[in-house]
Amino acid sequence: MKQKNQLARTIYHCEHKHKPSDCFGKNAAKKKLWIQAVKVAEKSDIKVREFVISPLEHRIFLILEAPSFESVEHVFGSLKTLGEMSITPVLDGSFFEL
Asked: What's the whole-model pTM score?
């Protein structure tokens, strides 16, 4: 349960996918963009709950907790140049609690 002084935060599911020909697994400059985004997120009040990769499918999945969609877009929006990106607000399982 949230404390009264806690600000409302939203959970976002982000999915990035790219073509095998555009893979940045061995491209240090493109990989650095992801590393920078995660570091900036931590400084921008965005918690990266999960960061998992499916290398065979060339997909990256993130679960983020952030104060606003705008903050997520500001930090991760530039990564759209590396492939397709979807950012979707989601609920965690706690909404089932009574």
From this structure: 0.83
